[in-house]
Amino acid sequence: MALWNGRFSKKINAQANDFNSSLAFDKRLLNEDITGSIAHVTMLGDCEIIPKDEAKAIAKELAKMIDEELVFDDSEDIHSFIENELTKRLGDLGRKLHTARSRNDQVALDLRMYLKKEIDYIGGQIKDLINVLCDLAEQNEDSVMPGFTHLQHAQPITFAHHLMAYSQMFMRDLGRLKDCFNRMNESPLGSGALAGTTHPIDRHKTAEMLGFNKPCENSLDGVSDRDYCVELAGAISLIMVHLSRFCEEIILWASQEYKYIELDDGFATGSSIMPQKKNPDIAELIRGKCGRVFGDNTALLTMLKGLPLAYNKDMQEDKEAIFDSVDTVKMCLSTFAPMLATMRVNKENMRKSCEKGFINATDCADYLAKKGVPFRKAYEATGKIVAYCIENGKVLDDLSIEEYREFSTVFDNDVYAAISLEACVRQRNSYGGANTAAAQIAKVRGELIGN
Fold it and tell me: Which CATH entry fits the domain spanning 104-196+216-352: 3.40.50.300, 3.40.50.720, 1.10.1530.10, 1.20.200.10?
C-alpha cells in the first residue's frame, strides 16, 4: 500500500507506478533503512513522543528484519516496504514509526549511511593496491627504465620510481575519500520533509546513535543536499583516471614493441582465431569503464543543476548513478591489484630500451655545467653532439674523448662514468628524485598506517 493514499481517490496507474518505483535499486539500502528506523523510534521513545514500551516493541521487530530473508513486494520504495512490513506484523503500532519523519530525510539518511560504508571499503581497496605498488617497487629499485615525456625517451629512472608516482596518485585518492566522508558525516534525520518537525525530537541523539559527527544544520539543506553524491562520484572518477592511465601503460608495456612486462595468464585472454595472442583485456576493460563512471558523475551534476529547494523526484536519479560508480570502481580495484601483483617485470628489456634515444643527454649537459660551463651553452654543445651521433650512427657512450673535445675542451675521461645509466639514476638524489624510491616507499607505508 502506498504511504500517501489518503489524498487520492483511486490507485496510481500501473505503468506510472512502475515508472515511479525505486525499490528495484534502492532495496540495497535495506539494512541502512532498518538501522536508521531503529535509532529514530528509540529516540521517539526516549523523548516520550510515543510510549517507551511501544518504541521498544517497534525497535525489536525492526531488528528481527535485519536477520530475516525478506521477500520484496511491489512497494514504491525501500522505506514503504519496511513500514508496510512492520504494519503487517504490528498493526497500528507499526504505523507510529513514521512520527516526526519524512521519506525525504529518511532516504537522505540511508544514502549517507550506505555511502560512508562504501567509502571505507573502497579506501581499504586502495590501501591494498598501494601496498602492492610498494612491494613491487621494493623488488625493482635497481630496475632501470626510460622515463618518458610526449611518449619519447627523456631521462633514465627506475621502475620503482615510476610505480611510486602512481602510489602518490592513489594516496591523494585516499585523501579525497576521507574529505568526502567527513563532509558527508552529518545526519539529515529529523529534517522532516523540509522544515523540521513540531515534535520535541533529539536530532543529536539519533546522529550519535548512527555514527554521525552531528546533525545537518539546516533542515531544508538536509533533505535537498546531494553534494556528497557528486563529490564521491568525482573522487571515484579520479580513481578511475589513475587506474586508466596505469592500464594504458600496462597495455603498452605488454606489447611486442616494449616487452617491459608480461601479464600473468590469469589476467589476460586469447584470440578466437590467432593462437599466438595474449591480450591485456582486463587492463583495456578498466580503461574503458572510465566512461561510464564519468557519465554517472555528469548525470548527477545535470540532475541537480536546475532543481529548486527542497526535495524533487528528480533526485531519485541519484542512487542508480552513485551506486553504479561505487560498484564499478570496486570491481576495477579488486581486479587491478592482483593483475599488478602477478605480472612479470622484464628488467633486461627495460634496460636495453634505455640504450636508445640519447636518454643520457641531459646528464652530458649537466656534466659540462658542473665544470663551470653555463647550462645554456652546455645544452647547445650536447645538442650538437647528439646531432653528430645521429649523423654517424653512434650513441654518446661510443664517442672517443677526442670526438667529445671537438665540441668542448672541458670534456675529460670522467664523462663516461658521468653518463652511464647507473650514474644517471644514482646522481638524482634530490628530494623525490629517481634515486629516492626507498625513502618514498618508507614514507608511503608510514602514511598508510596513519590512514
Answer: 1.20.200.10
CATH top class, domain 357-450: mainly alpha
**Residue for grid cell 561510464:** 292
To the nearest 10°, the Cα dihedral for 379, 383, 385, 386?
A: 130
| Residue among 75, 162, 199, 271 flagged as catalytic | 271
pTM confidence score: 0.93
Is-contact 190 201, C-beta < 8 A?
yes
Domain 104-196+216-352 and domain 357-450, same fold? Reply is no
Strand pairing report for 214-215 and 186-187:
parallel
Provide mean pLDDT across the span 291-297.
97
Where residue 202 falls (left for φ over 0; alpha for ψ -120 to 50; beta otherwise) is: beta
Q: What tens digit of pLDDT does each residue of 111-164 get?
A: 999 999 999 999 999 999 999 999 999 999 999 999 999 999 999 999 999 999
pLDDT band at 6 (very low <50, low <70, confident <90, very high): low
Q: Is the peptide bond before 310 cis (omega within 30 degrees of 0)?
A: yes
pLDDT of residue 10: 66
Contacts of 391 (CB under 8 A, 6+ apart): none
Which residue in 150, 272, 400, 430 is the catalytic one? 150
Cα–Cα distance, 217 to 219 (Å, whole number): 7
Is 204 labeled as catalytic in the residue annotation? no
Q: What is the pLDDT of residues 167-201, one digit of tens each?
A: 999 999 999 999 999 999 999 999 999 999 999 99
Mean predicted confidence (pLDDT) in 239-243: 98
* Domain positions in the chain: 14-100, 104-196+216-352, 357-450
* Predicted confidence (pLDDT) at residue 357 exceeds the cutoff of 90: no
Q: Please, which residues have CB within 8 angstroms of residue 137's CB and are 6 or more apart in sequence?
A: 159, 160, 161, 163, 164, 167, 437, 440, 441
Q: Is 271 a catalytic residue?
A: yes
Architecture per CATH, domain 14-100, reads as Orthogonal Bundle (1.10)
* pLDDT the model gives residue 272: 87
Strand 261-262 to strand 344-345: parallel, antiparallel, or no bridges (unpaired)?
A: antiparallel
Q: Please determine, for residue 393, whether its predicted confidence score (pLDDT) is greater than 70.
A: yes
Residue for grid cell 548525470: 299
